[in-house]
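Help! Submission page says 'invalid entity' but I think these are all valid:
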Amino acid sequence: MVTLVCSTARMDSPFDRAATAAKVLNNRVGTGSDVAVVLGSGWAGAAGGLGEIVADVPLTDLPGVPAPTVAGHSGRLLRVETGSRSVLVLGGRNHLYEGHPVDTVVHTVRTVIAAGCRTVVLTNACGSLVRENGPGTPVLICDQLNLTGRSPMSGPEPPPGFPGRFCDLTDLYSPRLRAAALAADPSLREGVYAGLLGGAYETPAEISMLRTLGADLVGMSTVLEAIAARHLGAEVAGIGLVTNLAAGMAGVLSHGEVLDVARGSTDRIVALINALIGAP
Ligand code: HPA
């Protein structure tokens, strides 16, 4: 009886589900990938600039990955060879605001790490609380405020073979990778990203609150994936592409505008991702 209970709990672990999905992934695109890049809203065009696409499968072919419901995500998983690196490019993500539990939101990140990736580059479209960082500005994420009220580290203790709870997040966004990005693009700004549950843009009052809390950027993704990746020992980098000044700072906000700005900034973004991927 005890054995049965233990093995059931083990089978249900989100970490084991990611390991299972990683086997499927490696069967579909081949083993040996070392970097994963998650492309945010409107970033799909960046994939082709990274190198030669050698595999292209629907993300939903991986067990446990729901179909994306957000415009601006390709829903494809590409393997791209850059010359020095094999990169898995995830053309979309699942969000809390779509109604997914936190383990589903971080499932693809856990999967690519289980498949062998040691570096995870998270990109997103976001609002800026800093007027000088207007639409079209990429900002290197140096730290984050997880304001989703959720954590990928909540729930049962990770099973044996996986790091335990209470991982250190002091250097969540790798100082080494940030230095590489800044060396490649010295005009790049850094900022603290506040990740909210989302589903609606913020109110001006919420933006005032976030500014007081130390946020430079605001969005509805990234923070949970960053924690999940760091917990599993990956090096994490994040780039927020500012698509709008935050609520109350200018005009009204629309997802269409967010996608247009993101698409228009592909070249600089590709150069930045390449700098992060190529960091020795
Ligand atoms: N707020 C939250 N998420 C966003 C924004 C914003 O202003 N812009 C793009 N994603």
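Support: the input was valid. A stray whitespace character was the problem, and the output above is from the cleaned input. Confidence is low (pLDDT under 50) at residues 1-9.
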